[in-house]
Structure formats: structure tokens, C-alpha cells
Structures
1.
Amino acid sequence: MEDIVGRYVNVEGMNIYYETKGDGHPLILLHLAGFDGRVYRPVIPYFSSNYRLIILDLPGHGKSDPWPRWQTQRLSLDNYSNIIIQVIDKLGLDSLSIAGTSIGGDLSLLLGIKLGSRVKGIVAVNGAGRTRTFNEKDIDSSNNQDVGRTLRFAGDYATKRVIEYLTWIRGQNRNEILINDLYAWNNFDVMEELHKIEAYTLVARGEFEPLITEDMIRDTASRIKRARTATIKGVGHYAPTEDPQGFANTVMSFLDEVLKK
């Protein structure tokens, strides 16, 4: 892990933190609701040198600055995507791929809509074109340090160490940020815009994923010109942390094929 490089880029007055590793095709990794880029630390050793990993902390997450009035003003996934696009522009990325999990999966699809041919491949894991899966009472009562919540969304084979690691990461982010993200997830609906995605797209879900159903990923993929679906065996909502090698292999096997086209 010693060759991971952490940097900041200023966007709209916010210092947005990202880490990079490798010198190949740029691949942005987008994290889950209420977490930060550390959920992808376990996958880094399994990616080949053919990829330049760029792991972002969304605004208000991890080491990134929060947005102005973060305590009273919520950001949508559309807001997040516009900030990510500015980061992409500042990094000079004219051709890239994107992989994300949970709200990161939703964001991957939204960025595909907005960036057009600049995106070569998309891997959206445990996300979909519409993700209204919670009621407001559930969101408002969310506790980012609740180990039970982590367990409820994890797969059957998640180890005690994985659950503790995930709860530790989420517990270091503000609970208000988790609630913001869950509302953003709940209000996400780009089903009527998915036809604009030009990139080859993989819409995947964990075998034990509790929120995104098989019907949801099939419906999402059916609206994208070059899309397929997949199941990542043995994992739940936290796929990259539950099975880092399986997650990396799923992403690479798809993108390796895409980049040959």
C-alpha cells in the first residue's frame, strides 16, 4: 500500500480528497452511502497495473471538505455528480471508466448519462436506475455506529473483522452525512435517461444484497444500449470489502473486455 498517493483538488471552494495507484486506464471508484474511499482499500492489491485507480471521498466524507451549510442543506446525487465531473475535468481525464457500489453505483450510472463517450465502461454494483428503498422514518433513525445495521446489509459470509472495519469507517463520518446520502439514494430516479448512456455497462448485485433486487438490475440494464447483468457470489451490500478479490475480478474481467473493443 506504500505506493498509494493521496491528493486534494479544489472544487467550488471544497478540498476534495482522492487517492491514486497505478498508471494505466483511469478507473474511478465511488464509495457507499455514509462511508468513504477506505471501503476500497482491500481491493487495491487485486487490480492489475493496467488500471490507474482513482478513489474519491465524496464531499463531507472521509478527508473531503463538507459543502457549505451541510448541517441544514442536503445534496442530491445530481449535486455529487456535478462535483465529481469537475474533479474529472481538473484531473484532465478525457477517457475513463467508473465503478461504484450503493450510491456509488447510482452515481456511476448518472455520470455515464452526463459524460457520454468520455466513459468507456461502467460497473454499477448494488445500485440501479431508481432506488427508492427506504421510508423516511428508517432514514431519520439511522445510526452510523450501529453494528446491527452493518450486519443487516452484509452477506451471509461476512466476517466479524469485516463488520468491525465497515462500522469503524462509517462511524468516523458524520451521521448527518449518512442521512443525507440515504435521502439522496431514495430520491434517485434516472430510469427515463438511461438510454443516454453510451458506455458498455455492467449492472451487478451481491448474492445476498438486501436492497437491490434482480428485477431492479434487469430493468435498469434493459434501458441501456450496451448493458449486461451479473451476480457477485457470496456478498451483500458491501461487496468490495466483503470479497475484495471477487469484486476486483468482476470489475476487471468486464473492463478488460470493454477496453479491447
Note: The first helix runs from residue 77 to 90.
2.
Amino acid sequence: MSSNEQIEETGFSERLKALIGTQSARGFAQKAGMGDSTLRAILNGAMPRLDNLLRISDAAGVSVEWLATGKEPTKSDSQFEEEFALIPGYNIQVAAGHGSIAGDEAPTRELAFRRKWLRFRGLNESNLALVFAKGDSMEPTISDNETVMVDTSERKLRDGHIYVIRNGDHLLVKRIQTLWNDGVHLLSDNKEYPPQEISRTNLDSLEVIGKVVWVGKDL
């Protein structure tokens, strides 16, 4: 189902209630990997974002098209859903800026990735988000305005990998170098930018959003 297709409001909550059946809304929300309050809002008539629609369909074992419209998918639609996963993209720039990945921000686009490729890379589609890079500090690896895929399940900083990190009000995309004193260097691949050392005592001020796993090319 494309992002331009409209979800049929009439009957949607009824179909969802039928899928939940006798189990609790909280239990189904946990199974779908979404917040209890989000699911209850949808049950009360709120229209779900595409990522939540996909989570509900996966948890219930039904097609997105049937869940959204009450119609059975055509063969071509079913083949597309079997072969491709739609990864949500957010209008968020990393390197400098405000906001957070996922959170209350609604996705503004979706990009299709082959499920076979995601499995090969060991990636879970529900943990992935797409954002924009800003600036030239990570050239030549990441260019200005390039799309960056972030695995939000990868929160442990590992030497040599690239992460999206929140430092105060800023979202940074930097390569990590671990130090002997348990601190880290935030490295820019563009050598015109000096390393930023974060001591062990200041590491708690950093929020790791996730590891960068794709930038229009494999990393």
C-alpha cells in the first residue's frame, strides 16, 4: 500500500477490535511493539501512521490492505509486501538540529527495501528509520543531504562504527573511537574537523539514537 492511499475510517477500528479479540489491548500493543496509549487512540478512531499500521498487520498476521480497507489484496500487492519492507523516513537532519528520531515525529516518506537484503544484514525493519545528513563533516562517507538509515536497536558504542548521537539539543552523526580511559572520540571522516573527546564522566550526557547502517550504500 502506498503512502498516498487513504485508510478507510469506517470499519477500521471494528476490524482491529476483531483481530484483538479476547486478549487485552495492552497485550496486543506489546506484541505489535507499540505503545498502549497509541493503540487505544487508534481503537478510538485515530488514524495510524504507516509504521504502526505495518506493526499491527505483522502482529495480527493480516495484510496491510485488508486492515486499512477491508479488501483482500491483489496478487501483485501481496507479492510486493512479501518482497519489500517500507522503512519510514523523517524530515530530520543529523549533524545539527532539533527533534528526535521516531518519537512524536510523523514520517514524511517511505522507502522500500528488499526483505531479503534486510535479513542478510541482520536488520529488523521495525528498528529502522531514515533521516537526512547535514553538512560535510563526514565526507566522503556521508555527503550533505544524503539519506541515512539508522538502526535504533544498536545503542552500545562500538569502536570504528558510525552513530547518530544526541548531545543536548543537537543530533550528530560521528564515527566512534573508544579510548583507553573509557572515554570516546567523536570522529569526523572529513579530517578538516578535529576529534571531539568525551570523557567517561560525560558519556551519560550523550544519548545514542542508533547506528548508521546504510547511506545509499553499505557501510
Note: Residues 1-10, 96-100 have pLDDT under 50 and may be disordered.
3.
Amino acid sequence: MSMIAMSIPPFPTFIRGGDYTFHKGERHFSRVFTVFDLLYVKKGTLFMQEGKKRYDVREGQYVILVPGERHEGYADCVEQTDYYWLHFVIPGNVYQMVEDKELDWSFVYKKEPTFTEAGHYQFHLPQFGEVNRREIVEQQLETLLSIRDGNTHVPEDYLRQQIQFSEFVIQLQKEAFSIPSATEKVCESAMKYIQENYKKQVNMSVLKEELNYHPDYLTRCMQKTIGISPIQYLTHYRLNQAKRLLAETEFKVSAISREVGIEDVTYFSKLFKKLEGTTPMEYRRLVHRK
């Protein structure tokens, strides 16, 4: 399998991204882009073809389609398939396609920085890969794509998206090594605790007591790894569970609010509207209409 080799700095430049769903019987359309197109599958399988190469991209896997090559779905989806897409460029279009190899940091580190010159690094990203730390990668993608306000952007949004995209690229490189850093291990511990206890009262004091890490250190680890704080992740996870219950059950909003750990249903509704752009009941109607 091929790898995309690039010199850093500069980092690849993020252009635009989003998420999409193909239903059973649908397939990806045919096109040729002048930019890189990264597809990460969250659920289901994408059957993609680039030139003569075919990729069955399953849950937790990604493919990076290169500029100038025609890509398309070569078969219909056999189930609902949810995926993220990211468009980006490599400055100067300076990259090479090389053969797959066993990687470690010695391949990346090329030149030490001095007091007046930046260090230089050579990244090798698998064109087709599978991630080991799915929750971290998917949360990074969620954070990256959430940095927006409807269809309007301010300069700060673009800059923050680029920073978050750079962190995502670093994560993909680390995934190729399959070696989690200490920061990632702390982040994974916090995420796991939140996922298992989100129905209870969770705050920074509780996290400090249960995980035995200082709140500031926990916050730094999570912000560096997934781009958001522990409390922001707690809110994100609770609302994702609420959206699932709104779509799959007939529970009242007040019952769903309590079920996800938020006792005040008024606060829950305001928070849902602020972060999702719609009320809980409007979200339920929208999902059922689809």
C-alpha cells in the first residue's frame, strides 16, 4: 500500500470538510479533484476506486484520494454508511507517493531546529489506513467541523480550523506508529470515565478524584489531543446520547434530559438549541422526516 510523503513545515492546508451519509443502494459519485480528499468512515463501508485501485473503507478506516486522479464508488453501499470528508492541499503540491514501510520517529525527524531556523520533518501518511484510537480521531474530526457558525465564518474560525487540522494530521502520523503518547493515554482515560459516568454528576473535582490528575493537566491533555476541554467533551457526549434517544425512542424531552445527566430540562433545551441549532423536538421531527 502506498504512503504520501511530505516535508513539514509547512503543514498541509485545510480547505473544507463535512460529514455525509450514503444509504443502502447508493454509491459515491465520480469526479476528479485538484485537491486531496480524505474520507474517514464512521459507520458502514465505502467502496471507492481511484484509477485502477480499489479500497473497501470500513468503520475506523480512511483513504486519502490524491489530486488529479478520478475517484468514484465502484459498488453500492450495502448498509447505511456515515463518513467524514476533508479537502486539503499540500503547499506547492510537493509530495511523493512511496511504498509502505515500518515507521518510527526516526523517519520523521530530519533536521534539528536552531535559534534562527525551524526544524524539518518528513511525514509518511498511509494512503489507506486504519486508526487504533477511534474515539480520539473521531472527536478531533467533530471538533474540527464544529468550528463554524452556520454558513458564515470569521477569520478566527479559519485559523482555529487550520490549527485543529494540523493536530489531526499529527494524529494520523502517530496512528501509523501505533504508539500512544502519554497525553493521549490521559485523554483516553478521561473520555472513558466520562462515557461510563455521564449520567451522574461529573465535574473537574470528580475527575481529579477519580483519575488522580490535576484539573489543569487533564484540560491541557484533552485540548491538545481532541481540541476541547473535559467539560466540553462531557456536554458533547451527553448531547450525542440525547440525539440518539430522540431518534430511537418516544421518551419525553424531560425524561431524556434526566437520562443523560442533566436534571434541569430548561437548561438542557437551551443548551441543545445553542449547540445543535434546533430544539430537541424539532430535531426529533427532522430525523423522523428523513
Note: Residues 273 and 282 are 10 Å apart (CA to CA).
4.
Amino acid sequence: MAGVGGICWFGFSLGLAVLGVELGMPGALVAAGMSGYGIASVATSFLAPVVIDRLPRMETMALSWGVLGVAFVALPVAAPNLVLIAVVAAVGGAAMPWGIAALNALISEQTAGTERRVAFTAETVMHSGGASLGLLVGGAVIGWAGAGPVLAATGGVQVLAAAVGLLLGRRASFRENQGTQEELVAA
């Protein structure tokens, strides 16, 4: 989910910038979107660490990335209204600290030592590398398909990644629980 979110970030940053130009509002949409996202993300970042231990990890991650994806899909619909752009982006921004906190908690709980360092490094590289890759090819993709469709598509991809991640997480959890039950029966 974090890697897909990184790759899709260009849809938000470049997508809003190009959509603003297409609508004759250069800089306005991306400024409203980044402001809404940033304010909400920072505000939520103070609450997430306090509450995250009470929330299920995979479900919180999936919901977080799913909400961000839905926000991406809604942005072209909200344009050109700057207040709506800021509000929709704020919803996505408010969701992200929960997913990041849940992912970090999951890594901390399920790994130790070298495995933990590798997991945190992989998370960082996948997200940052994905964002770099997305920004590298994103301009060409937006030029080919248009800003609105790319925003919607990158949002849809994130929702799909959240659903697949949740299903794979539940499947792994089921297998782990089944193995534990078999060990108890054998004992």
C-alpha cells in the first residue's frame, strides 16, 4: 500500500497543478490541495500515535489508503472550487497518518533486530522510490491521459491496493492462526 501510494502521489501533486492550468487557475488548485492535505495531515499526526495501539493494524492501513484513494477520485469533481479542493484534500491528508502509524506499529510488533531494520528500510525505499518513479513518468502520463482521468485512476489504484492489502493481510493472519491451533492440538 505504501509503495502504491508513493507511485500514485504524482496524481495529486502534478495532477492538481496541470488541472489548475487546464481550468485557467494556474497554481490555485495545487496550492489549495496541498494546504488542505498538509494542515489535516499535521493535525492528525498529533492524535494518531496516542490512539493507534487501540486500532487493528491491517484494517486501519487499508482504510487510510482507501480514503486517500477516494479523495483522489473526488478531486476532479471538486474542481474548480478551491474550498472543495482543500476540503477533499484535507480528508485524504487526515487519513494518512493513521495508515503510516499502523504500518510502523505492525513492523515494530512483528519484527526484531535485522529483520526490523530491513522492513523499515524497505518501507521507506518503496514509498520514496515509488514517489520518485511516479513523478518521473507522471508528467507524460498526465500529458497523454489528462489530469482529471489520471487523478481518478491513481485514486482507484490506491483503493484497489488497499483492498488487496487487506485481503492478503487477513489471509496471512488466518494461516498464522490456523498454524497456532494445529500446534495446540498437537501439544
Note: The CA atoms of residues 34 and 168 lie 32 Å apart.
